[in-house]
Design brief:
Number of strands of chain A: 10
Largest sheet of chain B: 6 strands, mixed, barrel
Largest sheet of chain A: 6 strands, mixed
Shape of chain A: globular
Helix content of chain B: 55-70%
Radius of gyration of chain A: 17 Å
Structural class of chain A: alpha/beta
Order of helices and strands of chain B: HHEHHEEHEHEHEEEEEHEHEHHHHH
Oligomer: heterodimer
Low-confidence stretches of chain B: none
Strand order of the largest sheet of chain A: 6-7-8-3-9-10
Strand order of the largest sheet of chain B: 2-3-10-5-7-6
Helix content of chain A: 25-40%
Number of helices of chain A: 7
Largest interface: A-B, 30 and 24 residues
Number of helices of chain B: 14
Radius of gyration of chain B: 33 Å
Shape of chain B: elongated
Distance between the termini of chain A: 30 Å
Order of helices and strands of chain A: EEEHEEHEHHHEHEHEE
Mean pLDDT of chain B: 89
Strand content of chain A: 25-35%
Amino acid sequence: MPDLISLKKLKRHYFVGGETVRALDGIDLTINHNEYISIMGPSGSGKSTLMNMIGCLDTPSDGSYEFEGELVHEMDDNQLASIRNRKIGFIFQTFNLLPKATALHNVEVPLIYSNTPREKRLARAKAALTSVGLEDRIDHKPNELSGGQRQRVAIARALVNNPSIILADEPTGNLDSKSGVEIMKIMDALHNNGNTIILVTHEDYIARHASRTIHLFDGKIKHDKKKSLKNKN
Amino acid sequence: MFNVILENLKLSASSVFANKSRSMLTALGIVIGVLAVTVMGTLISGLDKSFDKSMSFLGRDVLFVGRMPWFSDVDWWEIRNRPRMKMEYSEKLKSSSALVKAAAPISMRTANMAYEDKSIMGSSLFGTIPEYTQTISMNIKKGRFITEGEHRSGSRVTVIGYDIAQALFEDQDPLGKHIKIQGYKFRVIGVVEKQGKFLGLFSMDNQAFIPLGTQFRLFSRRGWMRINVKVDENRIEEAKEEVRGIMRRLRGLKPQEKDNFAINQQEAFEKQYRAIKLAIGGTGVFITILSLVVGGIGIMNIMFVTVKERTREIGIRKAIGATRNMILGQFLMEAVMICLLGGLAGLLLAYGASFLISQVFPSTMPLWLAIGSVFLSLFVGVFSGLVPAYKAAKLDPIEALRYE
């Protein structure tokens, strides 16, 4: 079985106003199945760029990116969309739900894009919402839900296509501490169920949930520490 | 793909109906465009119908020889000084040309008709000869037309039009009854079948025929006269030249002198009609194109606004796996939906308008035009939605997600 994710000498440079911004400047990183990783670093260190890169929203300027043995850096737009749809689950700081759609429909959308028949789609979307404890909120729109509930809808949406990896970008950043704890409990449970999770955060107490912490600085990996003991809250 | 299309359809519908007034105003151009093109089509179809009906009365192979051209480019004083038509011309034309199949002089005046206590004013009274029926398409509903003997002897008999029969007799049988025309007693020998209006202008049912001899005897020899000449239908142009030559000879015109009579044909109407039709059609097409272009630009504009407003949504959709084509489809569908709804609304209004028009003269909206206008609005939708939708599809997901 190939590594889940393998980045080699990965670079992402932007050209802004005649200057080259080295957002990622030679990243070598291997991620295995069922890892629980947190990415930390000061702002401007390249956390978000790395996240977008792993999430196939961005393409590298140089270097290689293999996802389950497939060469992502050679893919076209449609292939990237398909990888995002089937293999990656995104969780954002600002939830990024479709405001006019119900919780159920928000969770259904990835399944629509993967052309899942309606019956199957509804069943899976309901199951995903149940797994995050929102079975009684499926007909609510985002503005009728609390922040924690919205993020749980987003988690359900990320899970619904059984992705290979879940990418969470500051998932608790917009939540009060109580909801934050709830969300992290769900994240831990997902990991315990065998999911691979990457968390971007700048809070140490959030990063401690992960079993491996990668620190970025100026587009490079400063250190990459693995905990000897798995944290099981 | 089907699931995505269905989703896009629902999305478009909800977006269009969520912004009802915006969608309505945006679609207005399309509504007007479709309305213009369909109403124009209805109008032309109605005109065609009534024109054909009126023309069938005239007949392609009949020349109408008189003082005045129907559609004149000759100065009026020149026409005024022209000599009158004479009934003798009719005989001469027939005997001098093999191409003339039948010829009938018609003398016309207006007259008042009365029967018992009922009367009708300002009917057209035609004095003519039996051959008239060969030069014009007209059916006798009851009784018969004038005979040669009645013409020669100046009998006081009349064939009345449908409207006159209705006005004077209602349910009674007019045949054999005596009516008064300008105070003179006439026996009704026939009733003409209902003919309707000529070009929607004047009724052909409010007229009566009497023998030409009677007309001359009781009324004036002077007055408006025309000669209907039926010619060989295969050699109309040739016949026209022959009739012209004979008329010039009868009038004693020298070669350098201009014709002092006119030979009219159904064709003259057709020419005139084509010009009118072109004017109506041209105006309709102009309004249609103008409003569709303006409407299309309006839709393009509103689609740009929509795409801008929903930039973040596009980013989210891309992040969770929408391809460019799915996004393109979503916004294209929305533009098409606005246009289609506009087109259908226009069609609905046009249906109402065509109903009103049909009250004035018989007309129907041509089906091909209704279907065509729907396709036209579809086309405008695709045309005006394509660029904004393409812009949406090409958005960078990261930037779109960051958009506030």
